[in-house]
Specification:
about 15% strand, Rossmann fold, 5 strands, about 170 residues, binds shikimate-3-phosphate
């Protein structure tokens, strides 16, 4: 089983993904970590020194490598991964890939990302909570088109981690 968690930054892909992989007893992988391993620098450094287009090309390439080379995993991809090149169409075309959209409200994303935005190159420049909220609202509107092409949609706001994982498992089998 190849499970790919899709969703905006701060939607809980990594924490839900780790717990889900533990429960299913299959490996967990994180796209940003894979990129950092291959590039030898942080995601922020890749954006700063090589630019966003380079980053988007690399994430599309790594996504395809992981999906075609590995048998079973839970993979948390970046918030932008499904929205560039043919990433979403590629995943949709693979029968053994289950894409799961972790759908999170604007207010939850804003409060989660407020303390973490400095780690995210696309958000680091936003000064106030209002700026952040406004940015996410517009960005999410554009990206929802891709996220909603996922095979399964799961709400992930204030639910306990175990509950979210249980709801995913019940839709998988
Ligand atoms: C991005 C999301 C980040 C990371 C990069 C760009 C995006 O991953 O890939 O900062 O475009 O939404 P997370 O969704 O894991 O934060």
């Amino acid at each position: 089983m190849k499970i790919v968690l899709v969703g905006y930054m701060g939607s809980g892909k990594s924490s839900v993904g780790k717990k889900l992989a533990e429960k299913l007893k299959i490996p967990f992988m994180d796209m940003d970590t894979e990129i950092e391993k291959q590039q030898g620098i942080s995601v922020s450094e890749v954006f700063r020194t090589k630019g966003e287009i380079y980053f988007r090309t690399i994430e599309n390439k790594i996504l395809k490598e992981l999906i075609s080379q590995l048998e079973k995993f839970v993979l948390a991809i970046g918030g932008g991964t499904p929205c560039y090149a043919d990433s979403m169409a590629y995943m949709a075309s693979k029968e053994d890939v289950k894409t799961i959209y972790l759908k999170t409200s604007l207010s939850t994303l804003t409060s989660r990302l407020l303390n973490e935005k400095d780690k995210r190159p696309l958000l680091a420049h936003l000064k106030t909570e209002e700026d952040l909220n406004d940015f996410i609202r517009k960005h999410l509107f554009e990206r929802a088109y891709y996220y909603n092409q996922s095979k399964i949609v799961i709400e992930n706001n204030s639910e306990a981690l175990d509950d979210t994982v249980e709801r995913i498992v019940s839709k998988l089998f």
